[in-house]
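pls ignore typos typing on phone
FE2/S2 (inorganic) cluster + seq
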Amino acid sequence: MSAPGKPRSLTLRILRSAPGAHVEPQWQDFAVEEAEGMTLFIALNEIRQNLDPSLQFDFVCRAGICGSCGMLIDGRPGLACRTLTKDHGATITLAPLPVFELIGDLSVNTGKWMRGTAERLETWIHRQQAPALTAVEAPMEPELAEAIYELDRCIECGCCVAGCGTLRMREDFVGAVGLNKIARFRLDPRDERSDEDFYNLIGDDTGVFGCMSLLGCHDVCPKGLPLQTQIAFLRRKMAVVGFK
Amino acid sequence: MKVAKRTFDAVIVGAGGAGLRAALQLSEAGLKTAVLTKVFPTRSHTVAAQGGVAASLGNSTEDNWHWHMYDTVKGSDWLGDQDAIEFMVKKANEVVVELEHYGMPFDRTDNGKIYQRPFGGHSQNYGQTPVSRSCAAADRTGHAMLHALYQRNVRANTQFFVEWMAMDLIRNADGDVLGVTAMEMETGEVSIFHAKATIFATGGAGRIYYSSTNAFINTGDGVGMAARAGIPLEDMEFWQFHPTGVAGAGVLITEGVRGEGGILRNAAGERFMERYAPNLKDLASRDIVSRSMVTEINEGRGCGTEKDHVLLDITHLSPETIMKRLPGIREIAIQFAGVDPIKAPIPVVPTCHYQMGGIPTNYKGQVIVPKDGNPNVPVAGFYAAGECACASVHGANRLGTNSLLDLLVFGKSAGETVVADFQSGQLTLKPLPDDAADVSLARIARLETQTNGVEVNDVRLDMQRVMQKHAGVFRFADMLKEGVTKILEVAERAKHTQIKDKSKVWNTARTEALELDNLIEVAKATMISAEARKESRGAHVRDDAIDCAETPNGRDDKNWLKHTLWYSEGNRLDYKPVNLQPMSADVEPIALAKRTY
Ligand SMILES: Cc1cc2nc3c(=O)[nH]c(=O)nc-3n(C[C@H](O)[C@H](O)[C@H](O)COP(=O)(O)OP(=O)(O)OC[C@H]3O[C@@H](n4cnc5c(N)ncnc54)[C@H](O)[C@@H]3O)c2cc1C
Ligand code: SF4
Ligand code: SF4
Ligand code: FES
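k done
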């Protein structure tokens, strides 16, 4: 950390691109004076306000909960709003997350990808019959509820997708975010799908058997989801179904 | 200029909690529905809600809707409409259990029921002791709720128009609403969304203040669009300042922290809320706690070198409780305040948080306006729900967790009303006027041609400073007067905003300029309504209102027990009566009383 009263001057080296415009992406440097507690989100806003109104990046909540602001920070996927500049060197490189459709500069279309995955994996509670509305909640063990909640914390930021080696090679892989969702619904007693049903969704190379367990996903998840154990567990369960 | 036109049974503007809940009702009923949103649905600001959603399930402590109703009416300082409040608290259990059926991962009690925690202003037995009424998924309730609602909408195949910004409301000569114009943010093209029903669920406008817990996209678009189209705005002088925004950063620390046992302390380490609210103490309602904090700071008992904040202390809670019940809060405190709350207290200040007023609606979600002597006539084809609407259940001060409840109850109710009106054939597609898109096109054209104008950022900052200084936690008669003059000046300048970036594609500057038009409507409504209300009530507290037997806490029921209606045209003010009559005979009206906690 720099001494108080002597702010560092930072260089944000940003990969600029505009897909429609048919120009090659290029790096552009922006100088920003570091402030106390500065996050990349604050720095990027300063650039847009003072230096270049055309710079594109996404954010909503500024508190790590909406999942909008994923980008490659010094080459590693992370959330801009949760990244303090003081934890980085004086030059910080920023690039858009790979895999996703590029909108421009640091902005990518994670939403479209996530909706596609949601439709494909049917990530909602499946029930034959809707319970009557007057009924009270079905009881659930607090430990189970906590385990479901733990996996439900995913903010669909796409960092795991961007960090995944398989996904860079095959676009149709559901990614750690997809596998985690299946693990979440599989745990949930309110979802009546069987392991056979889940096998039909992820029991091949686009699903749990496509994963090479390199764990790029696990290391970069900003919410610290237990992706490693979940994927391993799911693979064992699905392998059992496969042998039947 | 030719403008593309799309036709739907219904168009919903907004995909936060309220918009998604309404959309679900429509999609499942088979209506052809378009949901417009500035951001991908699960990025909407509801995702940031932390503490919980209110329902008198009574899972942890005895509870019933009568107590919830009493607390809500009292919390509103009697400005809430008792019919809408009765409707909301009675529906609470149903909408929460429904959400549980959708897969919402609530925390559970040892016997497997939904976990509930205490929250400010919620009590047992008509104000006696705190009650556990807030249903929570740790401290990320909004996230869990928004994702559960979204998943259910994917199942129902709801059609979203993501990154489409609604610009203006379309009305015909009779005043009926026929849809909206909207700009595709990618291309900058304007289209018409023509529909039989239009539902606004655009959220709040906390960005009119300099320091706010709200996201940058909370620019009051729905409220601004309605105002420009001649719909009055109700009770806009009432803004909630949340007691515990992180000092300096504005990011929220949920009241659930105090629900779990957190204590506010001044520089002497004193638990000062004991002096201001002997019964509920740190869990008194938000307006009271915020004012007590500002009083402590003003009287020199603030903390830090500038003595400009107080401390929120949870160091006496076990690390396990903090990790399990408040993990997100710990993250936020570490990042934004640089303290680990397990070891040290968090510096906090009251921060603008919630808009109590909005587009006037009834409990069915219909937008209502005065017409021919009747103050509450529905506008054909127009509905609203959530923070942009004023039902009015929050009156002069909202209780924590009642907003997420409001989204669920009135989102659903607005959806049900539209479905019923649609199925009965009452909703028809009325012909569009020829000039339906002219206003929007002119706004875009002005931005394209404006020269020698003013910067959007400068105007917005001036607006925020004026609001912060002249219409904050405490209000002063002369400051409000001056504030009106100043905000009208700012509004004048906002007509000449200029953007440097004139490109069509993904032009953030243009979006921000259009948003500013909406913020300005909200700011004017707030300042002018506040200047006019010569009493203290709930979140609106003036220096010249006197606390005496006639006017308890400065509240003047004889002259001011009424809703404000502000019209953008000519900044005209009108008033309408508060509905003090509950909906059914199940409950007596809650009689007026002095508010103490
Ligand atoms: C930090 C924080 C914590 C909170 N915690 C709680 C809590 O614990 N309990 C509680 O009850 N309340 C809480 N609240 C309040 C509550 O979260 C909000 O009042 C509520 O979420 C608002 O929901 P909404 O659906 O009305 O709007 P939002 O969720 O804000 O959604 C607005 C939607 O409208 C869209 N939109 C806006 N303008 C346009 C336009 N022009 N064109 C197209 N789309 C548009 C946006 O894209 C978005 O989808 C909290 C608020 C904050 C800020
Ligand atoms: S699993 Fe983690 S990294 Fe992947 S989308 Fe969810 S929160 Fe982001
Ligand atoms: S472990 Fe699997 S999902 Fe995770 S990064 Fe590697 S291949 Fe991708
Ligand atoms: S802005 Fe919401 S996660 Fe970063």
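The CA atoms of residues 28 and 186 of chain A lie 46 Å apart. Chain A is about 35% helix and 15% strand. more later
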